[in-house]
Amino acid sequence: MQWTLVVPLKALARAKSRLADTAGDGLRPGLALAFAQDTVAAALASAAVRDVAVVTGDVVAGRELAALGARIVADEPAGGLNAALAHAAAFVRSWRPGSGVAALNADLPALRPAELARVLEAAVEFPRAFLPDAAAIGTTLLAAAPGRELLPAFGTDSRARHRASGAVELGLGGVNSVRQDVDTGDDLRAALALGVGPRTAAAAARLLIPGPQGDR
């Protein structure tokens, strides 16, 4: 089964505030966009992915991600992350009724297409499933089979919240690139060690953050 991914992205000017100790106000919007571009590009290259829909109200981000092949969904009703995901999932189901839908974080700059495919192939076995983040507190991917509601519960302690909602936790190894989201400077260093996409590599080079670059 192929999946349609829903990727939420807040306004770039407000994105990645927890990177303030690593990137100044003038650099964070570009860094957030680079994360999203590398995430979307890798997702579209995955054999398990049919489409990517980015839900955002940011005009610049929408234009740049559409150029990569993503479909842009307006951030409605502008009621926060989970409301945006529920809206986008309903929109996706209107034009891909037989497709599985998965919410994927926009800050996975080290994402590998093959690792994403492994996660989505494992998710096929369950009505709803999720993958915890590298810190084992949050969630980087939440999947719902065709005909099932996504029921996103992202935010503080989303791993526990998604588990409590009945979603099955995917205990896969070897998919670090799908788990390594970036909220802090330490997260960015971990992503750099895995090997990030070209846009993030270029943006991070301006920050003078040491970290080995792996092959993608």
Strand content: 15-25%
Residue windows where pLDDT falls under 50 for at least 5 positions: 211-216
Q: What does the largest sheet look like?
A: 7 strands, mixed
**Corresponding CATH architecture:** Alpha-Beta Complex
Quickly count the helices: 8
Main sheet: which strands, in order across? 3-2-1-4-6-5-7
What number of structural domains do the residues give? Answer: 1
CATH superfamily placement: Spore Coat Polysaccharide Biosynthesis Protein SpsA, Chain A
Overall average pLDDT: 93
Global structural class: alpha/beta
The gross shape turns out to be globular
Q: How many beta-strand elements?
A: 7
Q: Considering DSSP H and I runs of 4 or more, what fraction of the residues is helical?
A: 25-40%
Helix and strand succession? Answer: EHEHEHEHEEHEHHH
CATH topology: Spore Coat Polysaccharide Biosynthesis Protein SpsA, Chain A
Structural Rg: 16 Å
CATH class, please? Alpha Beta
Q: Report, as a whole number of angstroms, the end-to-end distance.
A: 25 Å
Give a brief description.
The protein is α/β, with parallel strands linked by helices and about 220 residues long. The protein has 8 helices and 7 strands. Helix 1 (about 30-45) runs antiparallel to helix 8 (about 200-205).
